[in-house]
Amino acid sequence: SPPGRFADYFVICGLDTETGLEPDELSGENFEQTPLRRTFKSKVLARYPENVEWNPFDQDAVGMLCMPKGLAFKTQADSREPQFHSFIITREDGSRTFGFSLTFFEEVTSKQICSAMQTLYHMHNAEYDILHTPPTNDKDSCSSTGDCNGTSVSKLQRFNSYDISRDTLYVSKCICLITPMSFMKACKKVLEQLHQAVTSPQPPPLPLESYIYNILYEVPLPPAGRSLKFSGVYGPIVCQRPSTNELPLFDFPVKEVFELLGVENVVQLFTCALLEFQILLYSQ
């Protein structure tokens, strides 16, 4: 039987520099987009431990759910704030595994990847020029101010562009915890503190591996009806498990539902649930 650990896996997903830039087929055709707006295939780079008996690792599912939009590239001109999300993997027998992911951006140090992105931009600009250059007999229709189609094309090319000699390239990366219970707030704090330790100029008191080992092997699941307090990288982390006579664990802020959907939609959705209507949630 499962030993009742707080977390089963620590996973890292991101860019595999050996395979390079592969288009993300799950996102559909996006070649008309500028290369910085396209999505590329992400991969599971590492996981710890390799496997646990009571929770076999599903690499395809975890990789897709950790980074559902694939790899994203940005430059120093773009916003690069970390983003957190959660997911659930439901198996054929109805058992569930919970995942919590923190996606952030780090600088691309591989010269091959930077060169490949530059090449994609050269190809994109060349194709764009061919498709949008007006016929030679339309030159007279340009205004005296020079606001011709060619000028607008050059402006579009400079928008969201990448120049290897001028820009710094960043790529998305994800750290994730796979857990048997949905302790969302605690997992979010663990991942945020780990990310802070990586990006902080002052290193943490202990090596990062020791904190990850602690989460995976030394922090137990709290007993039903009890709270658990354990040490993170920069401070204590607390989680609470309901007792058997309480409502099931729901560690998500209900406020976000109202912010995303609005009060009227939430009331309508709740009404449909009570009336047992079929409900479809559609999201990007």
From TrEMBL:
GO biological process: retrograde transport, endosome to Golgi
Entries under Pfam families matching the protein: DENN, uDENN
One GO cellular component, as annotated: trans-Golgi network
InterPro entries in the cross-refs: cDENN_dom, DEN5A/B, DENN_C, Tripartite_DENN, uDENN_dom
Domain of life: Eukaryota
GO molecular function (one): guanyl-nucleotide exchange factor activity
Ranges for domain UDENN: 24-284
Keywords associated with the record: Guanine-nucleotide releasing factor
UniProt entry tagged with the keyword Coiled coil: no
Organism whose genome encodes this protein: Chordeiles acutipennis (Lesser nighthawk)
Annotated protein name in UniProt: DEN5A protein
